[in-house]
Amino acid sequence: MSRISDLAGFTTALSTTEDLSVGIITASSFSGNLTGDVTGTATNASGLTGTPNITVGSVTAASGAFSGNVSVGGTLTYQDVSHIDAVGIITAQQGIQVLANGLDVTGVSTFKSNVSIADSILHTGDTDTSIRFPSTGTFTINTNGTERLRVTSTGLIGIGNENPNAELSVNNATANASVEITRGSSGAEYGYRLFGSDGATSSALKFFPVSNGSLGSEVARFDASGNVLVAKTTTALTTAGSRLSSGFVSLSGVSSSTNLAANAGGALSLANLNSTDNNFSNIGGYNSNGLVVSQIDFINKSHSSRTGDIAFLTHNGSAMSEKMRITSGGGIHFNNGELLERINITAGKLSDNTNIDLEDGMAHLFTTTETTTATPNIRVNSSTTLNSVMATGDAISVTIITTAAAAGYSAQLTIDGSAVTEKWNGGSAPSAGGSSGNDYYTYNIIKTGDATYTVLANVANFA
Asked: What is the model's pTM?
């Protein structure tokens, strides 16, 4: 078919059911749909439909709507766009980089992995409040533009201290600086407040009761002023407590010149025993009624006519009386002549219980009648030897009482398991026991050297 360069006048003659096969058709416009490939420059793509896809160079449009996916092989650039409204979820494979004015998120942001921040997290509208990461391994909390808390790379915590040198370092220069530790329970008074202050001349640790979140009056304090440490234990903080200054300890809350002093009642007071003043010191105990039940007086050598004695006193009813005194010359005085010694009683016989433990007493009574000879062994206990507690020149007296029988007697003694040679009263060791009653053995033991003793022995029968 020859080339048709102008179809005007022929289009109306063509049946709509017939195909038109031509070469190249050049026209200023088309009416109706086109099928097949269309190439060339199209200045107006209105009405393009069909299969296969339409391939174009670039598309310029005021708006567009896509019912399916849109795939962009290169870079998708937005310019002069006030906002992008994403109804669904935006998934970014390689991250999101936001420049200039930053990222403004109204709702909740959820990050499945880490969030990397160069320096600070700021409070919206309050840039002086922030969490900062000023250096490697360190983070800080700032308020009002001032650092309040710092955790260093080594785990040290500083509160008001940018260079902490302890696990917890608190430093606050304000007048009301304090550390408060409370434990509270609604409706009950539990917990205390610990208050610390540091000044030019004094510092203190104070304790306050806390009830239902409210701080009560101060009930205890440790004060340090100069070289003095005072522990105050009453609400008034004046009538009771203790005081430490210049090496002296006072339990009365007032200054003291003694090493250890108690309250005015004299419950406990230790003075310098070498002092030359007219004071004397005592150690006393009080029962629940406040009465002295025992007391030791250290009488100063210049106090009245006393000369450095040690007196032991007890209370009987409303009166306190001296019971024993050790004089400066080493003498012992008993005011009523009463001296008690406890006896260890064994419901058995000596031959079955030969270890004599002096920690149980210096006198031992065996209530079962003897049937054979026995060799008692003198010691302190199973793990302590007599030799280890006695010095050369020390002497002790040990008494053993048996229930007598002719066949039961003791002719030899051991000390710490080793035999010793006794010197018996009358010149010879016993060879029989008493026929009845009790045999009474006494041993005066004198240590003359290491594990070496002189033993003076005696036996008597009391029927």
From this structure: 0.40
